[in-house]
């Protein structure tokens, strides 16, 4: 393997480790569960409303906020899992080169 490739792998591994330490995986799961409960509650409130009431701005705003929180938490969870797998692969490649 070229020296430039090894250097870029080491930099990528450090970047992955930095991302892992900055964002909380547990916090993302908590945010995901809370946002799902929040979305379910908003959905139940919309069902309980009478059908001839118009769309109010506050429930719509709360729905958007809960949806953004849910998507952001899901993104952090998926990124954490994929970064963990990439870190294992990169470490294996670097260890393999150190043995040779």
Keywords:
100 residues, mainly alpha, 3 helices, single chain
Briefly characterize the structure.
The chain is mainly alpha-helical.
What does this structure look like?
By secondary structure, the protein is an all-alpha fold. Helix content is 87%, strand content 0%. Helix 1 runs antiparallel to helix 3 (57-99) and helix 2 (25-48) runs antiparallel to helix 3 (57-99). The longest helix has 43 residues, at 57-99. The termini are close together.
Q: What is the beta-strand fraction?
A: under 5%
Element order, helices and strands? HHH
The count of β-strands is 0
Class derived from helix and strand content: mainly alpha
Topology overview:
Elements: H1 3-22, H2 25-48, H3 57-99
Helix pairs in contact: 1-3, 2-3
């Amino acid at each position: 393997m070229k020296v430039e490739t090894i250097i870029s792998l080491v930099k990528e591994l450090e970047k992955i480790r930095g991302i892992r330490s900055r964002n909380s995986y547990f916090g993302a799961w908590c945010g995901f569960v809370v946002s799902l409960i929040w979305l379910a509650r908003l959905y139940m409130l919309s069902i309980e409303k009478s059908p001839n009431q118009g769309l109010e701005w506050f429930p719509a705003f709360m729905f958007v906020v809960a949806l953004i929180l849910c998507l952001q938490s899901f993104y952090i969870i998926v990124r954490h899992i994929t970064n963990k797998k990439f870190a294992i692969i990169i470490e294996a490649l670097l260890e393999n080169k150190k043995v040779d």
